[in-house]
């Protein structure tokens, strides 16, 4: 039952608690939570007399579908796989118990206390949380303990089998040597231009191909969808924004932008009093107001002689350079504006912003216009969305909702899962059309939030199940496939003829391409099928070559393997190969046990 052991997860409690509760309630109602693992005549299989109930299968199926691990169209195949998995678990549990594998109550207690699902905020086990979460999932403490006990037994069994088998060091070295092996070869690619095929497709050939490939010619489950969209950006396109609003927005957007600042500084303290300094600074301010340039005024009045020689320039500053009082004055100014007196650090300052380190107003006009317009329709957008929520929930159609809200009712052609275009192609949107509430119950979907500016509601207008098409429905497609098959067969025959000629020593004008020292892990542009075939070919004798052909999606490759060499030792690769060998060996041992148990068991389905 606990998926964690099968998946290698460390958290066993979460899968039971969340998965059982959600799936059981969805499938069988609240009352089922208290009978999921009880006696039930609805038995789908038995293993050596022990039953497997339909609820167990359905819970696992729904859990996989809800997690997104398996697409909904594969539900039927998934149900068979789940039942096989439960049968295997039952067999392993029985074998472990027959072999005397034992899990004590103390071991169970220790494991349960350590599960984070049952911990409080301080990270300690809480009996109250334990009871509440089990009750919410339809478990009694006894049922939970027994399910956990069975999973631990299976894990002990599998670990014991895995550790009982091992590979020799010589085997691991040989595997590593094979993995780092390098091969040099020549190859040539044949395509449709290398053979001449008459497109002579008979009715019998088409029927034969169609019968052998019917799975290719199914029309998938499809829906026609209606939807309405509330789009804040579309609403903003109809808003006229005046120039003053744009200027205000530009100032607001750039009020924290870095800026180049000049200043005139008049100090007080030892040489002049504060009152005298203020009077001197006011004289400077009057000079500026009367039209004197900032640079000339700075030379006459500023005590900061270094900057005064540069027109008072302090360079480009960011917020925080000179303190709060300076920031408050400097970052309140637009480009070209001059401040009043600013008192800070024993001096009076007059500031002027000579440059904003930001895009010019005209460069930002278009973006500013869009931002301002979006803000102006914000309230209307929120109201529209709320109306969409309220009305679509209660409505039996979408046309009335569209009419009431002044929206366009959009309609699509037939769509299969994953085929949506535009807004319907965005993640999760078309999935709503295939959800139980929308597809089976005929409801409008919930309001789907596409992004900050768009909300959508959809409804299924028509639905049709997966349908097996007839030959007449796909006649042209089948004819093209038969021609392609004939062309591929002709290429394979041509490849065989060329290889036979080369092996016989007949003169050949094959224009070979070279590939040197290619390993299994090489980052290469060669077709993967070519590399795989190269490493399946036998080692050639010294001075000779081995020839093979391999089919490609559109064509055939002829390969001449010329030499095989052992690559450089790579400790990391050697370790990885050894680890993988142990894992594969362990899986093989466990699978061997499962196969043996199945052959001897009495399994009824």
TrEMBL record:
A GO MF term: isomerase activity
InterPro entries, per the entry: PPIase_dom_sf, PPIase_PpiC, PpiD_chaperone, Trigger_fact/SurA_dom_sf
Membrane-traversing stretches: 12-37
Native source organism of the sequence: Vreelandella alkaliphila
PANTHER family: PEPTIDYL-PROLYL CIS-TRANS ISOMERASE D, PERIPLASMIC CHAPERONE PPID
Family: Belongs to the PpiD chaperone family.
Main localisation: membrane
PpiC domain sequence ranges: 256-355
UniProt keyword annotation of Transmembrane present: yes
Record's subcellular location: Cell inner membrane
Protein name according to UniProt: Periplasmic chaperone PpiD
């Amino acid at each position: 039952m606990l998926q964690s052991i099968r998946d290698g997860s460390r958290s066993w409690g979460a899968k039971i608690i969340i998965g059982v509760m959600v799936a059981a309630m969805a499938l069988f109602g609240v009352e089922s939570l208290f009978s999921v693992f009880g006696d039930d005549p609805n038995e789908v299989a038995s293993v050596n007399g022990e039953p497997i109930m339909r609820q167990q299968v359905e819970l696992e199926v729904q859990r996989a579908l809800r997690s997104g691990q398996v697409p909904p169209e594969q539900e039927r195949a998934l149900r068979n796989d789940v039942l096989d998995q439960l049968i295997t678990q039952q067999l392993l549990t029985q074998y472990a118990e027959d072999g005397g594998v034992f899990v004590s109550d103390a071991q169970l207690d220790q494991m349960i206390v350590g599960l984070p699902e049952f911990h409080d905020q301080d990270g300690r086990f809480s009996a109250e949380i334990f009871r509440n979460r089990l009750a919410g999932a339809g478990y009694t403490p006894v049922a939970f303990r027994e399910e956990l006990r069975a999973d631990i037994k299976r894990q002990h069994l599998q670990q014991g089998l895995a550790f009982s088998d091992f590979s020799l060091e010589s085997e691991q070295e040989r595997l590593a040597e094979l993995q780092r092996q390098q091969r040099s070869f020549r190859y040539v690619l044949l395509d449709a231009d290398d053979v001449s095929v008459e497109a002579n497709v008979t009715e019998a050939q088409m029927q034969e191909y169609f019968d052998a490939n019917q799975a290719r010619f199914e029309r998938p489950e499809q829906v026609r969808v209606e939807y309405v969209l509330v789009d804040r950006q579309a609403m903003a396109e109809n808003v006229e924004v005046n120039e003053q609003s744009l200027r205000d927005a530009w100032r607001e957007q750039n009020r924290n932008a870095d800026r180049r600042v000049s200043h005139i500084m008049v100090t007080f303290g030892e040489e002049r009093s504060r009152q005298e300094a203020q009077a001197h600074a006011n004289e400077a301010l009057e000079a500026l107001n009367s039209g004197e340039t900032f640079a000339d005024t700075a030379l006459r009045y500023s005590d900061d002689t270094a900057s005064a020689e540069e027109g008072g320039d302090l360079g480009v500053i960011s917020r925080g350079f000179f303190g709060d009082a300076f920031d408050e004055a400097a970052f309140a100014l637009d480009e070209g504006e001059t401040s009043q007196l600013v008192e800070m650090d024993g001096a009076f300052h007059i500031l002027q912003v000579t440059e904003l380190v930001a895009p010019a107003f005209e460069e930002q006009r278009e973006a500013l216009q869009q931002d301002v317009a979006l803000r102006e329709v914000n309230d209307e957008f929120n109201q529209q969305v709320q109306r969409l929520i309220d009305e679509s929930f209660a409505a039996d159609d979408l046309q009335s909702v569209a009419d009431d809200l002044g929206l366009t009712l959009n309609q699509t052609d037939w769509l299969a899962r994953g085929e949506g275009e535009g807004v319907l192609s965005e993640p999760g949107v078309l999935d709503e059309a295939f959800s139980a509430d929308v597809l089976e119950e005929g409801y409008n979907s919930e309001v789907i939030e596409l992004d900050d500016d768009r909300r959508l509601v959809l409804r299924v207008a028509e639905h049709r199940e997966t349908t097996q098409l007839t030959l007449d429905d796909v006649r042209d497609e089948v004819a093209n496939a038969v021609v392609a098959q004939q062309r591929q067969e002709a290429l394979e025959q041509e490849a065989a003829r060329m290889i036979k000629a080369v092996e016989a020593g007949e003169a050949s004008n094959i224009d070979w391409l070279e590939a040197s020292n290619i390993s299994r892990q090489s980052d290469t542009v060669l077709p993967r099928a070519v590399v795989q075939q190269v490493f399946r070919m036998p080692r050639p004798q010294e001075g000779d070559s081995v020839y093979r052909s391999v089919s490609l999606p559109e064509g055939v490759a002829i390969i001449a393997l010329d030499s095989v060499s052992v690559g450089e030792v790579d400790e990391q690769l050697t370790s990885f190969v050894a680890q993988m060998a142990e894992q594969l060996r362990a899986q093989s041992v466990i699978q061997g046990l499962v196969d043996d148990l199945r052959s001897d068991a009495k399994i009824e389905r």
